[in-house]
Amino acid sequence: MAKEYETVIGLEVHVELATKTKIFCGCSTAFGGSPNSHTCPVCTGMPGSLPVLNKQVVEYAAAVGLATNCTITQNCKFDRKNYFYPDNPQNYQISQLYLPICRNGHVDIELEDGTTKQIRIHEIHMEEDAGKLVHDEWDDVSYVDYNRSGVPLIEIVSEPDMRSAEEVIAYLDKLRLIIQYLGASDCKLQEGSMRADVNLSVREAGSEAFGTRTETKNLNSFSAIARAIEAEKNRQIDLIESGEAVVQETRRWDDNKEYSYAMRSKEDAQDYRYFPDPDLVPVHISDAWLEEIRSRQPEFKTEKMARYKEEFGIPDYDIGILTDSKKLADLFEATTAICNQPKKVSNWLMGETMRILKEKEMEPEDITFSPENLAKLIGLVEAGTINGSVAKEIFEKIFDEDINPEQYVEEHGLKQVNDEGALRATIEEVIAANPQSVEDYRNGKEKAIGFLVGQTMKAMKGKANPGMVNQILKELL
């Protein structure tokens, strides 16, 4: 009988914090920028330069800790993690080993079968990011870009509590939402502002002992993480089945080939020769400061969902999607506050907005249009000033350029024709020009009227009131 195996997974999640400047200097943290343009003597590790801690980093880290039920270490400090690598300009990274800012937290994840599970968080610590090596295949050289060097990170280290790719994705999604709601990071996996390393081992089902774990890096989408977990689980089971040992190592995932390869054998903490950073004073978080951070915690997804149900009475499905992004939730609330049409606002966000986002491969966080202009558009449709199909065309303009729909309708003469006399005259012409469809309709072919409505709309350049067109057509036929 084939042996049953259980997968044991723990994650190390790095999140780039949304500060304007780096953790120990005043350089910009903006993504992009020409290589080495966001740098100074501190973040390029020049001798004699001194780091100064960015207070906002401590606030964000503590806020994430509070939101994930951690104990906050009110007296914490920074340590140097020593290693040599070209993208690491000082030859050490400033991190926290001995006294991380947050410890012993947990989050509850919701699984597809409706059950919830608690995933424990071992610790969250603050650290600086390294630079980035850019490999030129053509010239066989590597260039180094220090723009990312010194960008503030928190590393969220979970306990090995996850047992499947589904649980891992649910945990990452929960973290992403908490951190986005806090405004601590945009958590864009594709830009590297959220990165997950997967520590995975397998063991025989029922066994208490842990197997040998590997760490998989270079995972920049939820789907890549799910594929990497599946592949690594199978690779380890194959090794065990054929009597070979799993080696503790760091592996790099290639998502195009759906294959991982060994990068290096896993170092131990003592290999890094950690010691307290002599250039940075210890961090003291007073009770008053901690209370202030706690008092600024936002309303998170779960509380929002309950409030939306009570306050706006929209369907659970809508609520689930709207609250899945802080940007969508904010847009929904702001637009509804102006026009007081929650279901109509929800329809525009769930329908046209999501469609365009998908087409343009954008995230809800990239939306730039204002709630005022969406509210005006809804007002124009409600008042019968424009019809639905014109509204959709105008919405595309709002999405791209945030135009004022009221001005746009005036300037382009898009007002709906509600003039019965004008409509009747056009419809009479359409009926005269399409005797076959008229006969089909009179012979019981209901669908034929659709064609006549279409021809009328075409003749009126899409501006006719569809309800009136239907009504007049039926009356004349």
Automatic annotation (TrEMBL):
<dbReference type="InterPro" id="IPR017959">
    <property type="entry name" value="Asn/Gln-tRNA_amidoTrfase_suB/E"/>
</dbReference>
<dbReference type="InterPro" id="IPR003789">
    <property type="entry name" value="Asn/Gln_tRNA_amidoTrase-B-like"/>
</dbReference>
<protein>
    <recommendedName>
        <fullName>Aspartyl/glutamyl-tRNA(Asn/Gln) amidotransferase subunit B</fullName>
        <ecNumber>6.3.5.-</ecNumber>
    </recommendedName>
</protein>
<comment type="function">
    <text>Allows the formation of correctly charged Asn-tRNA(Asn) or Gln-tRNA(Gln) through the transamidation of misacylated Asp-tRNA(Asn) or Glu-tRNA(Gln) in organisms which lack either or both of asparaginyl-tRNA or glutaminyl-tRNA synthetases. The reaction takes place in the presence of glutamine and ATP through an activated phospho-Asp-tRNA(Asn) or phospho-Glu-tRNA(Gln).</text>
</comment>
<dbReference type="InterPro" id="IPR018027">
    <property type="entry name" value="Asn/Gln_amidotransferase"/>
</dbReference>
<dbReference type="InterPro" id="IPR023168">
    <property type="entry name" value="GatB_Yqey_C_2"/>
</dbReference>
<keyword id="KW-0067">ATP-binding</keyword>
<dbReference type="InterPro" id="IPR014746">
    <property type="entry name" value="Gln_synth/guanido_kin_cat_dom"/>
</dbReference>
<dbReference type="InterPro" id="IPR004413">
    <property type="entry name" value="GatB"/>
</dbReference>
<dbReference type="Pfam" id="PF02934">
    <property type="entry name" value="GatB_N"/>
</dbReference>
<comment type="similarity">
    <text>Belongs to the GatB/GatE family. GatB subfamily.</text>
</comment>
<dbReference type="InterPro" id="IPR042114">
    <property type="entry name" value="GatB_C_1"/>
</dbReference>
<keyword id="KW-0436">Ligase</keyword>
<dbReference type="InterPro" id="IPR006075">
    <property type="entry name" value="Asn/Gln-tRNA_Trfase_suB/E_cat"/>
</dbReference>
<feature type="domain" description="Asn/Gln amidotransferase">
    <location>
        <begin position="330"/>
        <end position="477"/>
    </location>
</feature>
<keyword id="KW-0547">Nucleotide-binding</keyword>
<comment type="subunit">
    <text>Heterotrimer of A, B and C subunits.</text>
</comment>
<keyword id="KW-0648">Protein biosynthesis</keyword>
<dbReference type="Pfam" id="PF02637">
    <property type="entry name" value="GatB_Yqey"/>
</dbReference>
<dbReference type="InterPro" id="IPR017958">
    <property type="entry name" value="Gln-tRNA_amidoTrfase_suB_CS"/>
</dbReference>
